[in-house]
């Protein structure tokens, strides 16, 4: 299939675990309500008659459908939370149900509560995740306070029209406290991470092979290190997902164990582990996972690169057009840039950023203020008057003798074909030093479908303003006659895909939330 999703047993097991948690939780909540009803309406507790709790039960009985929906929603919520704290809540519910059933002399409800409690104890693996320690303390405090307040309101307080407002207010506060407590108990602890820039750079120079490896050294990334400190994974966290950028960097004797450890640590702490832009081989080294083909990385073999031949006709025309427009190109090491040229590059970058409503891309691309600390080469295109009008940056991947295309920016009035000439000249300049060059990821598919997707990509760029992706369109990369290598997004289960895709989007556009907040602020119109 074109999606390249390999079905795994992982999703089925997780789904089964959710069903089991839902069944145990639904049984406990239903048993507790029935035991509470039997206790409050029982003949041995006349002091509870006409209490707020009894009236609440009568109200729920009159709206059975609504009560069933509320009960099912509560059970579903608790069932989708595999934190150990929620197992303890379930055990407390069964114990409370058993106590009330004993007080109400209901042997059937007692048996159900005891059976549910033992089942929850035996199925401890259904709640494998730990919570954040500090948040859990606050959550338990709020939960106990809310439970005590609710018990006082329902069992001791008689309904009184003069106290209706206070009763409603206290009940609302108790509800808010319960919701806040559950949110705190469900908070994930941070994935262990540390930074060692010197060691990371050394490992990168000796072992990095992925086209996204340079961006693993950026300051925005967190780094998960192996116990032997011989390999590391760069990752970011959003939307409950810990997204690793590419495969682990280090010797193969260390990276395999590191990736499995990363997955285990993430799962134990409630994060969905995922790997972005990994090769077919790297995806195969991650057992019991689901992989999604997100596109192909374009590689140009530099030894045979040139503008001759029918396959290079389109690139040849665009390069010639730029030359007729008077475009000239300069390729130089970053260290050789003058302050004036650096200022021009910042100006072009800022202009490009202003044209992007979603904000500048990050995560799998570099940023001027957070550039990967590796050897960089800069290509500059000048217009007929000698003014910089576009630039690209290339990152050196020494382990594979590869140049990786990073920043690609041009001003709005750049002559046509300037970027084609700039990249083509760069590739010719690299011959003799590098073996090949990576033009980056072309999402979804390879160059064979470039023409069919060109219109869709143009629409996306115009409507969403993702101008930083302009050189990533298939038609552009296909002009350089590259070799396409498939890249994958690897997740634990197909059920994780929506959250992982959202996390991928948010990590690539970190300014999106801030920009949307600015747009949503009401503007004051002066008279």
Compact overview of the structure:
The protein has 17 helices and 11 strands. It has 527 residues and is of the alpha+beta class.
Average pLDDT for all residues: 83
User: Which term fits the overall shape?
Assistant: elongated
Total domain modules: 3
- Strand content bin: 15-25%
- Uncertain residue ranges: 1-9, 446-472
CATH H-level homologous superfamily name of the largest domain: Gcn5-related N-acetyltransferase (GNAT)
Q: Structural class, from secondary structure content?
A: alpha+beta
Spatial order of the strands forming the largest sheet: 1-2-3-4-11-5-10-9-8-7-6
CATH domain fold name of the largest domain: Aminopeptidase
CATH architecture of the largest domain: 3-Layer(aba) Sandwich
Number of helices: 17
Ends: how far apart? 61 Å
CATH class of the largest domain: Alpha Beta
Cα Rg: 30 Å
**Helix proportion of residues, in percent?**
40-55%
E-strand count:
11
* Helix and strand run: HHHHHHHHEEEHEHEHEHEEEHEHHEHH
* Largest sheet data: 11 strands, mixed
Task: Kindly describe this structure.
The radius of gyration is 30 Å and the shape is elongated. The chain has 3 domains: 9-185, no CATH class; 197-294, Aminopeptidase (3-Layer(aba) Sandwich), CATH 3.40.630; 296-486, Gcn5-related N-acetyltransferase (GNAT) (Aminopeptidase), CATH 3.40.630. It has helices spanning 9-40, 52-62, 64-79, 84-103, 107-122, 133-156, 164-185, 197-207, 252-268, 280-284, 313-324, 339-354, 418-430, 450-464, 474-478, 497-508, 512-520, and strands at residues 222-225, 232-238, 241-245, 272-278, 290-301, 328-333, 376-382, 388-397, 402-410, 436-443, 483-491. α1 (9-40) packs antiparallel against α5 and α2 packs across α6. An 11-stranded mixed beta sheet has the order 1-2-3-4-11-5-10-9-8-7-6, with helices on both faces. 49% of the residues lie in helices and 16% in strands. It has 17 helices and 11 strands. The protein starts with 8 loop residues before the first helix and ends in a 7-residue tail after the last helix. The chain is an alpha+beta fold.
